[in-house]
Specification:
By secondary structure, the chain is α/β, with parallel strands linked by helices. The chain is built from 13 helices and 9 strands. The longest helix has 31 residues. The protein is globular. The two termini are 39 Å apart.
């Protein structure tokens, strides 16, 4: 007998995307009576709520639940507490699930009792030319490191996934999402469930599509926040959750120190330029693996730089705020970047 599956979707002002998301779950090759779709709306002031209500009138598996606190961790926890499923899937309003998304998650989860979370590969949907460039950069290991759910270069046990499916028992043992974290709450939760003895499994058969941001400004803000909040997570756990998160910080420190010392010493200046040249060459090589068009290669290279710079700057500021001055997260860092 198929398990009851609950899908929880935090959203706010997603009128352009919410319909496609809902359709993707209505078209699953999984019994509809074994699905509940809980859309946690952060008090949208566009047409999002009307779209959801129109669907829910025709499809009882869809529920619209208010999230007056607006941010994702509050939506996730309220959704989990409202859900009835044996398996709970956390999904994004900017995404769409492939037809067998639920079935493949359930199948992957049944491979081992140790598996507490499953996830799959994200394919990009481009809304404009800038989104395509950003998507190419985010699908490269040079851009996002070993975020395997984006690059697809590893199948098996990993430390995090996007749009994860969780066994209900995971929340009973590891707790809920940390409501102090406006960003990185999913990474922090996955870190916690591994500490509690569960494994996270990435399957190439689990597929979803994501509408990539079409703005370099929004991309910078998003990854700046990721870096900033990552420090807060590390402080709470009194450990660096992954060593790869330090690489963008080292890149930013290299730029800052390199520029300063280059003004004082000519030999250091040449060394700085040499290392910067090596970085640029590597970026161009990895960009050329993503596209063969010369104009796109240079734009993808720029996107690599933007990803590394924004994350590293956010991490650097996070160290100053959280570790040096013991501050609370700034209001600016809590802004929504959708």
């Amino acid at each position: 007998m198929e398990k009851l599956v609950s899908i929880i979707v935090p959203c706010r002002n997603e009128e352009n995307y919410i319909g496609a998301l809902i359709e993707s779950f209505l078209n699953q090759d999984y019994p509809s009576e074994k699905i509940e779709l809980l859309i946690m709306d952060g008090m949208s002031d566009d047409n999002t709520r009307n779209v959801i209500k129109q669907y829910s009138n025709d499809h009882p598996l869809i529920q619209l639940i208010d999230n007056p606190k607006k941010y994702a961790p509050f939506a996730l926890n309220k959704g989990i507490q409202s859900s009835k499923g044996e398996i709970i899937i956390i999904f994004g309003a900017h995404a769409e699930a492939d037809k067998d998304f639920i079935k493949e998650n359930v199948k992957a989860m049944e491979q081992s009792n140790d598996i507490g979370c499953t996830g799959g590969i994200i394919e990009n949907i481009y809304t404009n030319k800038t989104a395509e460039i950003i998507g190419l950069a985010m699908s490269s290991p040079f851009g996002v490191g070993n975020a395997h759910f984006r690059t697809g270069n590893k199948i098996g046990y990993v430390d995090t996934v996007a749009f994860g499916a969780y066994k209900q028992i995971v929340f009973e043992k590891a707790g809920y999402f940390d409501e102090d974290l406006i960003r990185n709450q999913d990474d922090e939760f996955n870190f916690r469930i591994i500490k509690n003895g569960f494994k996270i499994y990435l399957s190439q058969n689990i597929r979803s599509k994501y509408h990539v941001r079409g703005s370099f400004t929004n991309l910078f803000q998003q990854y700046y926040q990721y870096g900033y909040w990552k420090v807060y997570v590390s402080k709470k756990h009194k450990t660096v959750t992954t060593t790869r998160q330090l690489i963008p910080l080292l890149f930013v420190l290299f730029l800052i120190i390199g520029v300063i010392l280059s003004m004082l010493n000519q030999h250091i200046r040449w060394l700085f330029l040499l290392i910067l040249g090596i970085y640029t060459t590597l970026a161009l090589i990895f960009a050329s693996k993503q596209t063969s068009r010369y104009d796109k290669i240079f734009k993808v290279t720029f996107s690599f730089f933007l990803l590394h710079l924004s994350y590293g700057l956010g991490y650097f500021v996070g160290i100053i705020h959280f570790l040096m001055f013991n501050k609370k997260p700034s209001k600016k860092s809590q802004g929504l970047t959708r």
